[in-house]
Design goal:
Helix content: over 70%
Order of helices and strands: HHHHHHH
Strand content: under 5%
Number of domains: 1
Length: 156
Amino acid sequence: MIFAGIRDLTTMTIPNWLTLGLALAFFITAPLVGVPLSEIALHASAGLALLLVGMAAFAMGWIGGGDAKFVAAASLWVGWGQALPYLLVASIFGGVLTLLILFYRNMPLPGFLFRVNWIARLHDRKEGVPYGLALAAAGLIIFPDTDVFRMVISLG
């Protein structure tokens, strides 16, 4: 989650391999820690539902394609039980992030910082907002409250 957030901040992309890895990690970890197959199916349905919602939001130009896939992979881990809190926290973080970036884009940027590609891109008003950062931060906040996370911790 941390790597995805930083990657989105610095490149405005979340690689497919990273999202796929997050999804595969769920399907490997869940059975190993004793999550029943029926519960895994419910988590998968949450991931699929959020993928469809994310694709619709992408089609409307509200979020990037990487964000749509990333929220679906994160939703596998939170399942239906924590999906609403996850999305609420991600929305709050995303709103704050957007306001901060809008403020940043209205400030003059010292010339030497324009040579740092990701800083210059983040300052460009034509660019989007690296919403993956908000999605990742929300995941880090919500994951400890999920049943899967608790089951992993109980093994240690």
